[in-house]
Amino acid sequence: MIIKKNHYLFFGFIITALVLSIAIIGFFWTPNNPNAIDSSNRFASPSTKYPLGTDNFGRCILSRVVEGIGATVLVAVFTLIIGFGVGLIIGTLTGYYGGWVDELLMRSGDVVMAFPSILLALVFISITGTGRYNVIIALGVLFIPSFARVVRGEFVRIRELDFVHSAKIMGAGPLRIMLVHILPNAIPVLLRFLAIGFNNAVLAEASMSYLGLGVQPPDSSLGRLLSDSQPFLFTAPWYALSAGVAIVLLILGFSLISEGIVLPRSE
Amino acid sequence: MGKIQIDSLHPNNVLEVKNLNVWYNNSGIFNSNSRLKSKIQVLYDLSFSIAHGEILGLVGESGCGKSTLAKAICGIIRNYKGEILHSGGIPQMIFQDPLGSLNPAKSIGWIVEEPLRLKGELDASSRKRRVDEMLERVGLGSQFAGRKPHELSGGQRQRVSIATSLICHPRLILADEPVSSLDVTIQSQILDLLMELGKEFQLSYLFISHDINVIYQICDRMMVMQKGEIIEEGDVAELFDNPSKEYTKRLLYKE
């Protein structure tokens, strides 16, 4: 089977499960209201009421980090849904059929990928305005070419194998060949790329929000928290640290998972 | 060139190929180089037929168009000029690389069952029964149904290919170097199996090989192909005794 038990996968799943369960709990319950301002308790050190202390408005940092993980994960997930969903369709069709549509779409993808993605996202955001939904759309669209390329590459590789010819001879239609014969063989590579893509999406959301283009105050996201905490790096280091550690754990978990997915050929 | 007249198949034949020409397209918007020919002809005006129960050998060096011919006959290559007529369903193909011709993500049972599933005539339980019978018939046994291609040896995989190609009872099998990647002992086992099944199911074969010994061993008639053309054709024994073309002599007696 594709997924063999190994240490990468084991620790990856543990870390990811931990971070994601914190995010899910955060949707329903946080220790304090993440946006409640306690002006008598600004820059409080960690205590029982505020386990990670408070920020410059006296807001509970733990609650804000928990909420921020959730916000960042949501943006990343929806970015992947757009990027991977559309990329999968484009990659499948262009990879299987080839021809001038393939050339056209892949060269347009090259054009998109030739620009730094943050720059393109900036252009997009300056047209549509800031906010988490616009960031999702901007990042989602930017992710399409790279996903489409990976999917296409797999389809091009597999469509020339004899078992695909043999399926054609038996009379399998194009849709059946694409979905039943080719796609299952592409899954290990796609899963790996999906995990890497999730990390890229998390980082991209963090950078966008850090630059003030993503999630808007007073709402929290991991990038937002990093930029909020920056002025107080020396007076309240736990603020920046907690947001930073959350990002690192999120990414570490998925990196380990992607490393742990063994490609069948390399066994 | 005038309109090709469509004749019906001679009743003794399972396959008739008339004036078959095949080109490969080298097109694409960004790689169309005017100095390179964008259309390369690989098969030139081939005409031949295969009778019921006949085993026709096809020899020639690699790159001469043998596999292209097989692909055109079974319909993978569609843009050809000429006529390909066959009786009794689409000819099935057995490929050289037995691992590449089996879907690595699927089980043996699934692979052998797929042609029946696509045909859609039988229900699931009778399909299963047919698959088990067929696996039994090619010498594997139904316990192989749950295994994956990479768990099998080369010879076993080729048996699976044979089972898959025979399960819908075609009249003609195109065997494209079916034993070239196997050990000599396994080779003869697979050849014996092909011969047995040929008698049992009244199959005709187009047997492609670069191995003259294999052709001599099993074929009734043979064709020699060079650069996309059939340069010589005849009875195996006669051709071996008395080859007329220099190329055939080289091919037959190079060892």
Describe this structure in words.
The complex is a heterodimer of chains A (267) and B (255). Chain A is elongated, with a radius of gyration of 22 Å. Chain A is mainly α and 267 residues long. The model of chain A has no long low-confidence stretch (mean pLDDT 87). Chain A is built from 9 helices and no strands. Chain A has helices spanning 7-28, 61-97, 99-114, 117-128, 132-159, 162-170, 174-210, 222-229, 237-260. Chain A starts with 6 loop residues before the first helix and ends in a 7-residue tail after the last helix. In chain A, helix 6 packs across helix 7 and helix 8 runs antiparallel to helix 9. Chain B has 255 residues and is an alpha/beta fold. Helices cover 33% and strands 25% of the residues of chain B. Chain B is built from 8 helices and 9 strands. In chain B, strands 5-6-7-3-8-9 form a 6-stranded mixed beta sheet, sandwiched between helices. Chain B has a 3-stranded antiparallel beta sheet with strand order 2-1-4, covered by helices on one side. In chain B, helix 2 (108-119) runs parallel beside helix 4. The longest helix of chain B is centred in the last third of the chain and has 18 residues, at 184-201. Chain B starts with 12 loop residues before the first strand and ends with a helix. The relative contact order of chain B is 0.17. Classes of the chains: A mainly alpha (267), B alpha/beta (255).
Characteristic key phrases:
heterodimer; A: 267 residues; mainly alpha; elongated; B: alpha/beta; 8 helices; 9 strands; 33% helix
